[in-house]
Amino acid sequence: MFGPIIAKPGTSRKNKTGSWRTGAKPKFLQKDCIACRLCLILCPEGCIEGTQKNSFHCDYDYCKGCGICALICPKRDIEMISEEK
Amino acid sequence: MRAFLEGSKAIANTVSLCRPGVISAYPITPQTHIVEELAQLVADGKLDSQFVNVESEHSAASVVLGASASGVRVFTATSSQGLFLMAEVLFNIAGMRLPIVLTCANRAISAPINIWNDQQDSVSLRDCGFVQLYAENVQEAVDFHLLAYRLAEHKDIMLPVMVCIDGYILTHGIETLDMPEKEKIDKFLPAYQAPYKLDVDNPLTLGFLADPDYYTETRFAMQETHNEALKMLPELFADFSSVFGRNYQCVEKYRLEDAQKAIVAMGSVCGTIKDVVDELRKKGKKVGLLKISALRPFPMQDIYNALKGIPRVAVMDRALSLGSLAPLYSEIKSIFFAKKKAPKIISSFIAGLGGRDITAESIKEIFRQLNQREVVGKFIDLKAELLQDKL
Amino acid sequence: MKEIRIHARAGQGAITTAGILGSAYFIKGMYAYAFPYFGAARMGAPMNAFVRVDDKPVRMRSQIYEPDFVIIVDATLMRGANCLLGLSDKGIAVINHKEGIQAPKPKLKQKIYLVPANKIAQETIGRPLGNTALLGAYAAATGELDLNTMQEAIRERFTGKIQEGNLEAVKQGFEFIINNK
Questions:
Q1: What's the start-to-end Cα distance of chain C, in Å?
Q2: Are 3 or more Cβ–Cβ pairs between C and A shorter than 8 Å?
């Protein structure tokens, strides 16, 4: 008999961590972005995409609202905004 | 083929014929000869296997874990402190359901440091999820490795197996045995087909986080599988017998049919007990032996059937559970709790710790002390003159 | 059952000696169990190796306290310990002779043979390792094994020049006893 000992890839997509956000979410202003990719690299959920300057954005289904992207952005081009907005 | 071989050499050469793809171990007395011989076979090009030198037993166990997870047959061996350093990984191996075969050359545990034989090392790890087999002689030691791979790699079992052999007595003992031939091994033990493995083309994760919603079921399944292994072992033994002509059981009943007194024991000491039983039988004493070959899964029903009609039973432990009853004793005793048919007396004896020689006289002493009164945790051959109340 | 106890120091090849002796019995068609007991596991420390022989599989695992035969590889061990302790009344001891060390007096029907094994070894193997000469002497003194069987066991253990030397050492050890019996 076997219990749940094997995990197939892609299971993290099933868990939509976006529901964990409690109040704030990042807003990608896409004005002063220099495409340094720091937000993409540091996002703990890996839900930020983008390649060119001012193209970066995140998938709110998975963004936990931790604010690391906004904190690390050297151009202050990401800001945390209230969930309601 | 009949041969006169050192236990370690016999084991190494048999393991070699099982064609493990990866071997990793760290030397420790009295296990060293086994992996030394395997390393030599690899270096000489006689065994096509990767021998991974590591800096500790923790790493050795980790290497075979990783290799096994990638779908190859693996082997490792250790003793005593080395087994304990592996302990963390061993629980992982079992939990990930990887069919690793490990030889434990049984040796006492520090402190005080002691390189000689008892069974405290493997007995202490009886809860780690490994199947545990204990060999009486070199022939069994060799044969149990073949059985170990067959059982471990069965697609319904997938549990690691620890083959426990008494250090020095069997590892360094040279004796006559029938070395299993390659053709027979190939017949008995097909190539390992991993039912799941780490594979870049078909990715999966083993050993992931299982939160309270999942963990219980992983452990429940392991417990069930041990029961399944217990049911499967007689079939495997029969299959083994049909290929090699040698018969094994989870427990061996030796002259128990009309016995009034019996000793329960594990490992090489069973040979000594058999000789003493024969000697006492010649003098008309109705004595016998119950040899436990499988400590995990624990063959409770077999033990119950074997001992229920015997008035006096002595359980000999070569390990302790400090602060409580001796490990084998407490498990045997619990089988008979509230049972109508049970021995009148089940006594507990401790012998052969840290290489203290168990002589024929030690065994006779146990039979002598197995009388009207139940004895619990009686040490045999204890030297009172070495004990003091205060330093 | 016959029981043999070998006295040596760790590093003097007692396990090899026990293994060859057991192997000779195996070639003869008997069952043997050869095993060591180490004291301090260091070169030079006194240690024992044992051989138990029977015509059926050997099951007894304890050390040997009442040997039928004793082989003493290093006579200096007799300074500190009674190497013949427990030797059977009809027992036979084969001792690697060393100048200045008295052999114990045999009791009852015991027989003690002093063999210049290291001298034989020096001449045959080129090193003072008297073990195989003692095995030859053992075969002759006990009558347990013939010279051919003992030499066969040597052939299985050694190859090349070392084999040649040891075969000659066994032979000379054997003949020493025959000539001095």
A1: 25
A2: no
The most distant pair of C-alpha atoms in chain B lies apart, rounded to whole Å, by: 69
Percent of chain C with pLDDT over 90: 89
Contact: C58, B274; criterion CB under 8 Å: no
Nearest Cβ partner for A1 among B207, B210, B221: B221
- Please state the domain extents for chain C: 2-180
Q: What is the interface size between B and C, counted as CB pairs within 8 Å?
A: 65
Fold adopted by C2-180: Pyruvate-ferredoxin Oxidoreductase; domain 3 (3.40.920)
Would the CB atoms of A3 and B217 count as touching at under 8 Å?
A: yes
> 3-class DSSP state for residue B219?
helix
Q: Verify whether the Cβ–Cβ distance B204 to A8 is below 8 Å.
A: yes
Model pLDDT, residue A85: 60
CATH of the domain spanning A17-82: 3.30.70.20
B175/C32 Cβ within 8 A: yes
Distance from CA of C74 to the nearest CA of B (A): 22
Q: Do C35 and B29 touch (CB under 8 A)?
A: no
Q: What are phi and psi of C160, to 5 degrees?
A: 60, -140
- Whether the CB-CB separation of A60 and A85 falls below 8 Å is answered with no
| pLDDT < 70 positions in chain B | none
pLDDT surpassing 80 at residue A84:
no
CA B371 centroid distance within chain:
30
Same domain, B80 and B45: yes
The two beta strands, B74-78 and B131-134, are unpaired
Cβ-based contacts of A5 with chain B (< 8 Å): 95-97, 206-207, 218, 221
Starting at the edge strand found earlier in the chain, the sheet holding B74-78 runs B50-53, B22-25, B74-78, B101-106, B161-166, B131-134, B294-296
Residues B52 and B174 in one domain: yes
Chain B residues close to A6, C-beta within 8 Å:
196, 204-206
- Neighbouring chains of A at 3+ CB pairs under 8 Å are B
Report the residue of chain B nearest C62, measured CA to CA: B359
Residue A19: which pLDDT band, with cuts at 50, 70 and 90?
Answer: very high
Q: Do the chains contact at C60 and B175, CB–CB below 8 Å?
A: no
pLDDT tens profile A37-65: 999 999 999 999 999 999 999 999 999 99
The ipTM assigned to this model is 0.95
**pTM for the whole thing?**
0.94
Distances (CA, A) of A21 to A26, A73, B218, B271: 11, 20, 32, 68
Task: Identify the pLDDT of residue C80.
Answer: 83
Which two three-digit tokens encode residue C148? 């051919």
Q: Examine the pLDDT at C53 and tell me if it is beyond 90.
A: yes
Predicted local confidence at residue A22, as pLDDT: 87
